[in-house]
C-alpha cells in the first residue's frame, strides 16, 4: 500500500482538498486498494474540525466526498508511515522539518508537480477566499501525483 500525506497550515482548506481530490482520482482509476491518502496540518487551531466550508462547497459542487475528514496535526510518526509527504507551501515544509526526524523526511512540494505554473506555493484560500483557484491546482496536480506514484511505486 502506497501512502500519501498532504500537509498545509490548519488542515481545513488546502490539504483536505488535496486528500479528497486524490482519493476521488484513485477511485476513478480503480486503485483504491493500492493507495491510501490522509492530510494533516502544522498548526493546531482546527484540530478535530471538518474541512472549511469553502473547501466543502467546491467538493460538493463536483461530487467529491470529504466524509470522515477532520483536521489533525502532522507528527514524527508520519515520516515512517507515509511514502509521499506533500507540502502545500515552503513555510509548512520548514515546520515539518522542525519536528523530530523531520530533517530527514522526504518532502514533495505540491507546486513542483506543476512546473509550468508561475505560482510556486499553493495559495491559502483561508486568506485569499479563492477556493476555485486551489481546486484547479489540486485537480491538475493530483493527476500528476497519481501518475508519479503509479510510475514509481505500482
Shape: globular
Number of domains: 1
Round the mean pLDDT to the nearest integer and report it.
97
Oligomer: single chain
Count of DSSP helices? 6
CATH superfamily annotation: Response regulator
Helix share bin:
40-55%
Helix and strand composition category? alpha/beta
* Number of E strands: 4
The biggest sheet amounts to:
4 strands, parallel
SSE series: EHEHHEHEHH
The third-level CATH topology is Rossmann fold
Give the neighbour order of strands across the main sheet.
2-1-3-4
Describe the structure.
Helices cover 42% and strands 14% of the residues. It has one domain (2-153): Response regulator (Rossmann fold), CATH 3.40.50. Strands 2-1-3-4 form a four-stranded parallel beta sheet. The mean pLDDT is 97. The chain has helices spanning 14-28, 53-61, 77-81, 90-98, 125-128, 131-153, and strands at 2-8, 35-41, 84-87, 107-109. By secondary structure, the chain is α/β, with parallel strands linked by helices. Helix 1 packs across helix 6 (131-153). Strand 1 (2-8), helix 1 and strand 2 form a beta-alpha-beta unit.
Tell me briefly what this model is.
Belongs to the low molecular weight phosphotyrosine protein phosphatase family. With 154 residues, the protein is of the alpha/beta class. It has 6 helices and 4 strands, in the order βαβααβαβαα.
Amino acid at each position: 500500500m502506497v501512502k500519501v500525506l498532504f500537509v498545509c497550515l490548519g488542515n481545513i482548506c488546502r490539504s483536505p482538498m488535496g486528500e479528497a481530490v486524490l482519493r476521488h482520482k484513485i477511485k476513478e482509476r480503480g486503485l483504491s486498494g493500492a493507495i491510501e491518502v490522509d492530510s494533516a496540518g502544522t498548526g493546531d487551531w482546527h484540530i478535530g474540525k471538518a474541512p472549511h466550508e469553502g473547501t466543502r462547497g467546491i467538493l460538493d459542487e463536483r461530487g467529491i466526498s470529504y466524509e470522515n475528514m477532520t483536521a489533525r496535526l502532522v507528527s514524527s510518526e508520519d515520516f515512517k508511515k507515509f511514502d509521499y509527504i506533500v507540502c502545500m507551501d515552503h513555510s509548512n515544509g520548514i515546520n515539518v522539518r522542525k519536528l523530530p526526524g523531520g530533517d530527514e523526511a522526504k518532502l514533495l512540494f505540491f507546486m513542483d508537480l506543476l512546473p509550468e505554473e508561475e505560482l510556486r506555493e499553493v495559495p491559502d484560500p483561508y486568506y485569499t477566499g479563492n477556493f476555485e483557484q486551489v481546486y484547479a491546482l489540486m485537480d491538475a496536480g493530483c493527476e500528476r501525483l497519481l501518475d508519479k506514484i503509479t510510475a514509481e511505486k505500482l
